[in-house]
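User: Hi! I'm working on a homework problem where we have to compare a predicted structure to a textbook description. Could you give me the structure for the chain below?
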Amino acid sequence: MRYILCLLALFSLAACSSQSVSLRYQTATSATLSPQAQLEAGLSEVDITPPPGLPKAGFATWAKQGDGFRTRLKARAFFLRNRAGESLLLLQTDLLAGSPLLHAALSERLSKSLGITANNLVITATHTHAAPGGFFADNFYNAHAANAPGFEPTWFNFLLTQLESAALSAYQTRKPSKVALGQRDVWSLTRNRSLGAFLHNPDEHGTADDPARKFSAINPHLSMLRIDQLQDDGRYQPAGAFSSFSIHGTGIPSSSSLYHADIWAYLAVGTARQLQSHYDVAQPLVHGAFEASHADVAPNATPELLGFREARRIGLQLAEQASALFISLDQQLSDDLPLRSALTEVDVLANPQIGNTHLCSPAVGAALAAGAHEHRSPVLWRLPFIHPDQPRTFFTDTCQGGKHWLGTRWLQPLILAQEDFPNRWLIQSVHLGDTAWTFLPFEITVKAGQQIEHAVAQSFGQQRQPLRWQVVSSVANGYTGYVTTAEEYARQYYEGGHTLYGPNTAAFLAQHAQAQSSQLLKHGSYAQLPSAQRYQLAVKHYWPTAQQTRPRQWLSQAHYQDPTTQQEDYWHISWQDADPAALDWHKSMLQIQTRANPQGQWQPLHVAGFPVDDQGFDISVQHLADGIYEARWYNPPFSGTRQYRFYLQAQDPARSLFSEAFPKAAPLTTKDIP
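Assistant: Happy to help. Predicted structure tokens:
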């Protein structure tokens, strides 16, 4: 995540009102277990695209208010209940990160409706930098992760409602199922963006000026849980997958004002479509992909060409890899899956120590203001102490070591209270079969992830339990900035500057993960949580409320725009409509229809067997101003006399609109008439 902290901006919370939120956890170790004959699983997908007007999180100061969407934001739910009666609900979201507040609120609801306890609920994220912020459990990231500050209660409640809907749908659609776990390595699509810091680890080799070294300094593991469901004819049919990979959601720059899921949209939807075609099934598959240890891993995009074209290329190549992994599991399916889950809340202000490892008081490093590699902050990244790899060489005997404090270590604490930083961390472990998944609320570097994996592996070794492979997931259930190794931290690249709690953070997390995994192996599923939580958050409202009614009508014909080096070609059209608050942005809006010639019948357009609509990759909707909207259809085909039109959908059929046909018809010959 890139973000810039200007000292004047620190006072922005003063413009927000304060709101107290109280929640109660369901803290039982697990629901009453009822053994059953076979594993059950259910899957679902919901839309979490909000209306225009919300600040976007990830690029902070340099982001723009969202004014529409290019690829929709989604949430996907995976419900599992094994033969022993153990349940697990995995949620994947197209958000910057999870939120302990969201986790607590959803856990409270699902404990009543589904009997899901907090340790059995996981909220993961793609870390896209083009979804709204303002739903975190702390004032620090609510203020500074997005381009405008504050906790947005309407957005939070919308998210909570949609995630609950996804969970209920997954539960209600559960069927007897078979599952398989697999992992494969993917190379050439990612690279290390902070190679100098990576190579500072004592077990690494090479030099930062070796242009090829960055491609091997990554976490290449693509990990997957495949799910097949029993059908009425007695056969098992592929239903979907929950997978993890390490790649930053920064394939599209901050200049885009649209909501989108970045590379992850192409990975998730592309995989689902490729598998639906491969297995020739009618029911769409659900693929939820989320972040692993990705903090210093960037997309291998051409820097001058960052945008949707490059995101599409990388995302669809990842989808090919995910599809190949899914297919390779055809013969490994099992009708049971041993599972255990544990969740611990660590209040690091009250308990900053485990064993001999101490955390520092939180502090923002000056290097953070530089921004990450391709997304550097203009001008600022060149300044002394802010520029990467300029650690402090004096007064280094403090807990934060070589970190230059942004605004100095005397002024910063006067402006940023410790209580405003994220200080209640959710640490979660899930054992699926002979694999271990550690979910942490941080962006974790490759080497820090390996350090945590090593600690978890020791717990399995001590209990003499088999461990095939692991996942260490970033930005799950919350957001607390970055985690580097102590050696990487000493170099004070962007990632080290954003490691708020100092150089021992990775060791602290590794010891907690090891202790949690050991207890899980010895005693089974559990939760260690406070019985209730209270959050005092600075609130600001961005969700649109005006609902002026206007006649829905086209304002132009469709026009074609040639491609450029930065953008694909597209058809575009504008129309007038009600204000954004009156439209359902999380429901289907636009579709492309086609006919073979001017005398033919209109039909929905399909490309490669899938409809061209706003559920895919190539339709954008943007609010321009005062109820004026523009739709774009990217990467359109051209085929002789074939024509197309925009279909603007509405729940009330009387409000649906069809545009004029385009391209304009050429004169017909006899052979053109069907």
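For your comparison, note the following. Residues 1-14 have pLDDT under 50 and may be disordered. Residues 308-328 form the longest helix (21 residues). Good luck with the assignment!
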